[in-house]
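Any chance you'd type out a single protein's sequence alongside its tokenized fold?
>
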Amino acid sequence: MQVRPFDIGQIRQDFPILGRKVYDKYPLVYLDNAATTQKPRVVVESMADEYYNVNANVHRGVHFLSQQATDLHERARETVRRFIGAGSTREILFTRGTTE
């Protein structure tokens, strides 16, 4: 397996907040990930799309939007399962924070 170096410029472009300057001169570096993490543009855009177009309870309704939200939720679980190599989507749980 070949390891590729990270392109820090490209990574910064994925996180719009990292384009900010500290005290109008230093590039922002965010290290408080235990409290919250910055989200890449694609995550924020996907979340906005969900709120605008599919926002409904997951696994709790029989109406159209709930079914769509449930399908998206389950597809996300499958994507995460494949990414981390879990044996089943039943091993993938989403929660608001790590302390819950």
In short: Residues 54-100 form one domain. Residues 78 and 94 are 12 Å apart (CA to CA). Helices lie at 8-14, 41-53, 64-84. The first strand starts at residue 21 and ends at 22.
